[in-house]
């Protein structure tokens, strides 16, 4: 792997850190340099003090000069004075002419003040004669760099934090942009949009995330192909089965009109109807499993629905007894009349099929706190406890308990389809052993 993403992140962070450290260092030096000189206004104040002292000195009024110096020292809370410089040669030293004119006892007002020194320097303003000087220890209010501490915090803490935050934000957006596109495409694919792809949106990238997008697109394309082929095969199977079934039904009807064997013809018709129902159930089951629909867009009266199903069952299974216990009304909201009706019909038909002639099937509907519970019990041979969950699998066949054990009782698609339809309406179904040895189906449906 070329690890392009690794190099992008590494170079961004390393180069960013180097540039950040260099920038902080340069800004700190420039800021310190700019803050190390006395403000021009304060320089003018100090020169004004020197001019006043020089005027008093030239007037020869030493007492007035002393009083004025005392006033300045109290006002600025510092030391101030007027002195005269005079060199005293020793040991025959010869002082060059004019040398003593350049001697200073303090700092010039334009000199740099070091911010790291705790003591304030003495400032020196010479008089016009070149030998007398006004000296004053720099007042604290005039000291430059009063905001140097705050500036250091800004430069060493706030600035790096802000820059690093921006870098992290840029890296996060660079990483999350393709991941969000991939997430959106995955959600669309999950919701049934099998054309969802992400590669075109990341065409400009050449890193590992672009490779991941290509793998996703290949997977999505393959999955879409399989799903479409499966749907096409199911549609072809439906078409191929329905056409001969229709021809058989037409031939049977013609044979009956011409006086054929009525019993045999009825059996053929029944087989044809069974095949047609099997195809319909298989298609419905496939649709529910693939699309996972939520069938909760209708309101209905469960008692009314059960009454119609029970009337049909009594007509079709006249040799079985149906014992029914229903409340006057059982309202359901957010359900599906068609799906729920087909599911309960399959459960009821299964119970009647496995109950011998003359047997009893019991159907009871009771109200719970937030749901309705429907129980359907038959008098069949029952199912072993370890197989109670397996009977909801398509085409599951339970071992028959008859002597020899060669025959197997079939459950087809009815219960498998019933469970998926009931779950699509928000309910649940489970099987258990009935008190009389048969099978009991327990269906719970939320009221809303």
Written overview of the protein:
This protein is α+β, with helices and mostly antiparallel strands and 448 residues long. Among the domains are: 98 residues, Beta-Lactamase, CATH 3.30.450.170; 152 residues, Heat Shock Protein 90, CATH 3.30.565.10. Helices cover 52% and strands 15% of the residues. The protein is built from 9 helices and 12 strands. It has a 5-stranded mixed beta sheet, covered by helices on one side. A 3-stranded antiparallel beta sheet has the order 1-3-2. Strands 4-6 form a two-stranded antiparallel ribbon. Helix 1 packs antiparallel against helix 4. The chain is rod-shaped, with a radius of gyration of 50 Å.
What's the Cα radius of gyration? 50 Å
Mean pLDDT: 83
CATH-level-4 superfamily name of the domain at 295-446: Histidine kinase-like ATPase, C-terminal domain
Order of helices and strands: HHHEEEHHHEHEEHEEEEHEE
What ranges have pLDDT less than 50 throughout 5 or more consecutive residues? 401-410
SS content category: alpha+beta
Which CATH-level-2 architecture of the domain at 295-446?
2-Layer Sandwich
Distance separating the two termini: 54 Å
**CATH fold-level name of the domain at 295-446:** Heat Shock Protein 90
Let me know the number of strands.
12
- Helicity level, as a percent range? 40-55%
Percent of sequence in beta strands: 5-15%
Largest β-sheet summary? 5 strands, mixed
Global geometry = rod-shaped
Strand order of the main beta sheet, please?
5-7-8-12-11
- CATH structural class of the domain at 295-446: Alpha Beta
Count of separate DSSP helical elements: 9
